[in-house]
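Morning F.,

Quick status update on the modeling queue. The single chain you submitted on Monday has been processed. Sequence for confirmation:
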Amino acid sequence: MEFKDYYKVMGVARDATEAQIKQAYRKLARKYHPDVSKEKDAEARFKELGEAYEVLKSPEKRAAYDQLGQGPRPGEDFRPPPDWGAGFEFSGAGARDSDYSDFFEALFGARARAGADNRRGGIHPGQGVDHHAKVLLDLDATLHGGTRQLSLRVPEIDADGRLVSKERVLNVQVPKGILAGQHIRLAGQGARPHGEGTPGDLFIEVDFQPHPLYRIDGRDLYLDLPVAPWEAALGAGVKTPTPTGTVDLKIPPRSHAGTKLRLKGRGIPAAPPGDFYVILQIALPAADDDKAKAAYAAMAAALPFNPRANLGV
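Structure tokens below.
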């Protein structure tokens, strides 16, 4: 996917004010509007300009986009990092234009659809607009539940037209067993309406920080467990960490690298609970002394084993 440099498209600096961005858009929109422009690529440039303006005119989208930095070098493929946009509070973003690029869709598509689904301001008078945010929790939050203090950045335009961010701190009750992609609804924590009425809600989308041991896949957890060659070949009982404590795991004889062992119900305590999978990884002892080298030589002589037999060599 190609990275889009929206500042370059608009011809403005990365620290441009709100007024400078509006001025640049109006000037370029007149130049490339398909109904009046004589430029051969006017329609494509006009669509690209509209997409750039959609991002840079919005304090929330612009602040999140700025987190990506300058982007990759020309010609390099781009994928947004998994934690992109976490910690930003977005207002109802509205529906996206079907002509926007895959780059825009990867960054803002889900939020735009969520904003369209939950946006209430202007639809029901007296009700404020819903807000949205994505946060990264530690695995312990879903295993045990409980209160977490979350810090959200709320982008806005200051009196000089510059983009700034304010911090908002919330104490949030995290339900035990919540899964990545699910939402926590905080009633009345969205935008206040103009005049009298009911504030909107804040919808917090949950994702998880990388864990040093476990991988999260839906409600299931995975652990790569190193085992010695003889433990895999002959079978063994080994101590194995799990989120609920160490267990004695039985390694079946004739196991191999990639063997998957399942501990039912030891994943995320959702409804129903997930499972805990142990993936065996063969750890080879180092041949760094004469004794170890002799052991490897003896094994090579005793075992007629060709690890490349399935390759026909």
